[in-house]
Design goal:
Layout lengths: L1 H20 L5 H7 L19 E4 L12 E6 L4 E6 L12 H11 L5 E3 L17 E3 H9 L4 H11 L1 H14 L22 H12 L2 H7 L3 E5 L6 E5 L11 E9 L3 E10 L2 E10 L2 H15 E4 L9
Helix pairs in contact: 3-4, 3-5, 3-6, 3-7, 4-5, 5-6
Length: 311
């Protein structure tokens, strides 16, 4: 009796093995026979690519700046290389327009035509005319290149001013800009409106993800018109370093008497990319130049992908 049961079990096992490993045409036979590695525990070595990490060659050498807020960061790894009052709140002035532009591309199409129903005449202007019909794209050039307060205002007003400002604050929250709040689209308001060096680096990183906006902020000068070619606007980038420093690709200026001089910059050097935020400066262009020189002379990289491993 025991011998018969043993024979039965051995025969059963034989057919099971035949079913599993004979290369027939059945679905389950293919599944198990030809994909046996899927059901085996195989030791694999995970190969993770780690971005090169920047470090200062001389940690005691700090560039001379007048800015009260400063944040310089490697864009790819988002590793900071210079910091000063990183999360302190400052008046954003026209750096606000980075978020204005990000919201505008969310709610409008570039070729959408806007009729200027209302405008403002305070501070830097692209000189929009009432009843002028102009594309969203040209308003974005006016906002980001010329820093036109009227251009930013019209983008917000056409959508519904309060609704647009609400979207700006939602955008900031989505980007984890926890030390930021906006009350107007141009950055003129100085009450209950603030940002930090770190938060502006987050906003700049988001803008640079959009090739369309990245191209606009790197424009030194352009002449645009309304759709009827009645009004022409010569727009000159407020950032005087653009075209003067090799590798500098914009990004956004800002100034009011209370805010001081602000500048957010995008800089490339030796296949590395940087965001430099300068806030409440006495000379934003000189401060940025000093930081760029410091990067060129004092920043090196550790590339973990090319390090020897002990096996």
């Amino acid at each position: 009796m025991i011998l018969m049961r043993l024979r039965f079990y051995l025969l059963f096992l034989f057919y099971i093995l035949l079913f599993l490993f004979y290369p027939g045409d059945g679905f389950y036979i293919h599944l198990f026979s030809y994909n046996r590695p899927l059901f085996e525990k195989k030791e694999t070595e995970a190969k993770l690519k780690i971005n090169p990490v920047p470090y200062p060659k001389n940690p005691f050498y700090i560039p001379e700046t007048t800015a009260q807020g400063l944040y310089a960061v490697d864009l790819t790894s988002f590793t900071p290389i210079l910091e000063k009052n990183t999360h302190q709140r400052f008046l954003p002035a026209s750096t606000t327009k980075i978020i204005t532009a990000l919201v505008a591309v969310d709610v409008y199409k570039p070729n959408q035509i806007i009729k200027v129903k209302k405008t403002i005449d305070e501070g830097q202007l692209m000189d929009l005319k009432l009843d002028e019909k102009i594309t969203v794209e040209n308003l974005l050039y006016g906002t980001l290149v010329h820093s036109g307060n009227d251009a930013a205002f019209v983008l917000a007003d056409n959508y519904g001013y309060k609704k647009f400002i609400d979207l700006m604050n939602r955008k900031a929250k989505k980007l984890n800009m926890v030390d930021t709040h906006f009350e107007d689209a141009s950055g003129l308001m100085e009450t209950n409106q603030y940002t930090s060096p770190f938060d502006l680096a987050l906003a700049a990183r988001e803008l640079l993800k959009n090739p369309y906006l990245a191209k606009i902020v790197s424009t030194k000068e352009i002449i645009i018109s309304d759709v009827d070619f009645k009004y022409f606007h010569k727009l000159t980038n407020v950032n005087k370093l653009l075209g003067e420093i090799a590798g500098l690709g914009g990004l956004k200026t800002g100034y009011t008497e209370e805010a001081g001089e602000n500048l957010v910059s995008f800089y490339k050097n030796n296949n590395h990319q940087f965001i430099i935020v300068i806030l409440k400066s006495l000379d934003r262009f000189n401060d940025t130049t000093n930081v760029i020189n410091w990067i060129n002379n004092n920043v090196s990289y550790i590339d973990f992908n090319n390090q020897p491993t002990n096996r």
